[in-house]
Amino acid sequence: MSKYKLLAVDMDGTLLNSQKKITPRTVSALAELAKRGIYVVTSTGRGRAEVSDYPEVIKLMHYGILNSGGLLFDFVRDEPIAIHGVDEAAILQIIDFGLEERAMIHLLTTKKSVARESDIQNMAAFDMAVYFDMFNRVCERCDDFKGYVRAHPGEVIKINLYHRDKESRDRNFARMSKLNLSISFAEAYNLEASPAHITKASGLVELCGLLKIDVAEAVAIGDAHNDTEVLQAAGLGVAMGNASDEIKQLADLVTLDNDHDGVAAAVEKIF
Which one, of 199, 232, 236, lies nearest residue 217 by Cα? Predict the structure, then answer.
């Protein structure tokens, strides 16, 4: 019998294959864990709106670590249980940085996803075409981001800036690094900004505390830069076969890639 009581699994590049689908084998593996009383939670940079496309998995999860740790969410009650908002002054500066670099600005709140219509219709320019259908369906449209932030104080939990190239991203990384934030890389040229010290790892620690579980009893699976801390914090950190060498080296175990049921293979081996 496994000593682990909780599985925290990333979505993009991990739970989802390259077509953004979850295979029947993976669903079955997670369902078996849930049936055995093991907590299955998503640990993702996505917000509540972006995880709504996967009801077959969400129904197996009582809780989610969303917005890269900025939001702990109760899927059963469909409500937040912990919220860590970004400082308004920092958000306004990030918006300016995004506008200066002609980046796609994406705000995530407790339940909403906010972006400009013009950017959504041009997501290929930000190497984000694979997400167009989802963004087109779930995003609230907004052109005045600063007005939105001021009208919704304390609600913005995370900001994504999707850039057109690496040079643009790197310029904004230098600017944003001067602010008191947690910044991580995701997708091709994205920067994710969360409150200082808020990461998927802090979300895992917070959720384990609420559930009265030792973090050493948790398994985390991921593939990207924003999974670094959670793979190190969990009792067992698992890197996907499609992860970078850097992520694989810090993990305790490497599984198959996301197009070959890597999550299912890890679950079957560990649990």
Answer: 236
Alpha helices in 85-219 (DSSP H): 88-100, 117-120, 132-138, 145-151, 166-176, 200-211
172, HSE (Cβ side, Cα atoms, 13 Å): 31
- The pair of structure tokens assigned to 250 is 């810090």
Q: Which residue has the tokens 């999707």?
A: 162
pTM of the model: 0.87
Q: What is the pLDDT averaged over residues 206-232?
A: 96
Two tokens at 189? Answer: 């040229």
DSSP state of 271: -
Give, for 230, the enclosing helix (H) or strand (E).
helix 228-233
HSE toward the beta carbon, residue 70, CA cutoff 13 A: 30
Q: Phi-psi category of 4—alpha, beta or left, where left has phi over 0 and alpha has psi -120 to 50?
A: beta
Query: Per residue in 148-188, pLDDT tens?
Result: 999 999 899 999 999 999 999 999 999 999 999 999 887 78
| Reported confidence tier of residue 1, pLDDT bands at 50, 70, 90 | low
Q: pLDDT digits over 123-139, tens only? A: 999 999 999 999 999 99
As a whole number of angstroms, the distance between CA 80 and CA 109 comes to 11
| Burial class of residue 212 in the structure, from the number of CB atoms within 10 Å of its CB (0-12 exposed, 13-18 middle, 19+ buried) | exposed
Domains belonging to the chain, first-starting first, are: 6-83+198-270 (3.40.50.1000), 88-195 (3.30.1240.10)
